[in-house]
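From the methods appendix. Each design record in this collection lists the discretized structure first, followed by the designed amino acid sequence. Records were kept in a plain field format so they could be parsed without special tools. The example shown here is representative of the layout used throughout.

RECORD:
C-ALPHA CELLS (126 positions):
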C-alpha cells in the first residue's frame, strides 16, 4: 500500500516554528517529487512548496512562505519535511504532502499528484 502520513502540526503562536514530517511507505522516495499543500477552511487548496525528485535540484516555494519555510527530504528515512519558521496567522491550514513519481517541480504546486496524505492541522493563534 502506498501511503503518505503527515505529522508535526499543532497550535503555535505567531512567530513560532513547527516542523512537519511526511513519512512515505510503499515506494521509494528517490524518484518522487513531493509537494506540500495547504487548505484553510473555506479556501482553495494551494501549493506551498515542491521538491523535485532526488537529483532534480529544484525546490520551489509560494511567495507567501518563501524565506520562512524550508522543504527538505531524507531519502534514507523515507521522509520529507517542511520546516516552518516565523509563522503567521494566515499560515493556519491543514497541510498535506503529496507525491508524483518521476516528476520535477515546474512551479510551486506539484502537478497532478497521485498520492496524498491525510493532512495535519497547523493553527497559528495568539
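DESIGN:
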Amino acid at each position: 500500500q502506498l501511503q503518505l502520513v503527515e505529522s508535526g502540526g499543532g497550535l503555535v503562536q505567531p512567530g513560532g516554528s513547527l516542523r512537519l514530517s511526511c513519512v512515505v511507505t510503499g515506494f521509494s522516495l528517490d524518484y518522487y517529487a513531493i509537494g506540500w499543500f495547504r487548505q484553510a477552511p473555506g479556501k482553495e487548496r494551494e501549493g506551498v512548496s515542491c521538491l523535485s525528485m532526488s537529483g532534480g535540484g529544484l525546490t520551489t516555494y509560494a511567495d507567501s512562505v518563501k524565506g520562512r519555510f524550508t522543504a527538505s527530504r531524507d531519502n534514507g528515512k523515507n521522509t520529507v519535511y517542511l520546516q516552518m519558521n516565523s509563522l503567521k496567522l494566515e499560515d493556519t491550514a491543514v497541510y498535506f504532502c503529496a507525491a508524483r513519481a518521476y516528476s520535477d517541480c515546474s512551479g510551486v504546486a506539484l502537478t497532478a499528484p497521485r498520492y496524498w496524505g491525510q493532512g495535519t492541522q497547523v493553527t497559528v493563534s495568539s
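APPENDIX NOTE: The CA atoms of residues 21 and 81 lie 5 Å apart.
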